[in-house]
Specification:
- The protein has 202 residues and is mostly helical.
- Helices cover 49% and strands 4% of the residues.
- A two-stranded antiparallel sheet has the order 1-2.
- The relative contact order is 0.12.
């Protein structure tokens, strides 16, 4: 099975068939898709200027989408390296019990679904790398009461999400499932009071 970097080379290879280059970009999302596969694909297509169903997009637009994905991946890999180093030091110092950030991080190792968007058409508009920087900054500071990506104040608890955890606070502005560790207990409670069933919300 080809890795991310091998697939990225195929996307950039001007000698490759255009359909293969598009397919390789889609396959990259099996390795790294911050919003989930479908939402990340929709995001990349809209930012690069080609349709999600476009079978022969401009190669330059494919590469632009890949560039954005690669930048975001480098941001996330740097965070994961720092996270692993911190946990190693904590274990060395005798802190064996992981915290809530660690529990959340275990579900997103590798960057898949870091900022999960259950509705693939509703996702942040900013570049992926910027979204991840905001999310990482929130994970590294005290919990807050708003969405760490867009500062949206309306968080609604949804059930039956297509990703783990299967329920959680969703930002109604940018669509991400907000990681629980970045929210105060009061913000989590408020999102539960405003909860809606996913089947009703969609």
């Amino acid at each position: 099975m080809a890795g991310f970097r091998s697939l990225a080379r195929q996307v950039r290879d001007p000698r490759s068939d255009l359909a293969l280059r598009r397919y390789s970009l889609r396959k990259c999302l099996e390795r790294f898709a911050p919003y989930g596969h479908r939402a990340t694909w929709d995001h990349l297509c809209s930012r690069a200027g080609f349709g999600p169903e476009d079978r022969s997009p401009d190669p330059a637009r494919l590469v632009a989408a890949l560039d954005e994905l690669e930048e975001a991946r480098s941001v996330w890999l740097a965070y994961e390296a720092g996270f692993a180093q911190r946990r190693k030091k904590e274990k060395h110092d005798g802190l064996r019990s992981p915290g809530s950030v660690d529990d959340w991080h275990r579900l997103t190792w590798g960057g898949f679904g870091v900022a999960w968007c259950d509705d693939p058409r509703v996702h942040p508009h900013e570049p992926l790398a910027e979204v991840l920087r905001r999310l990482i900054a929130a994970l590294e500071r005290e919990p807050g009461a708003v969405c760490p990506v867009c500062a949206g104040e309306r968080l609604t608890w949804k059930y039956d999400l297509a990703h783990e955890p299967s329920s959680g606070p969703v930002c109604t502005a940018c669509g991400i499932v907000v990681p629980r560790p970045v929210l105060t207990p009061e913000a989590l409670a408020a999102s539960r009071r405003g909860r809606v069933l996913l089947s009703v919300a969609v």
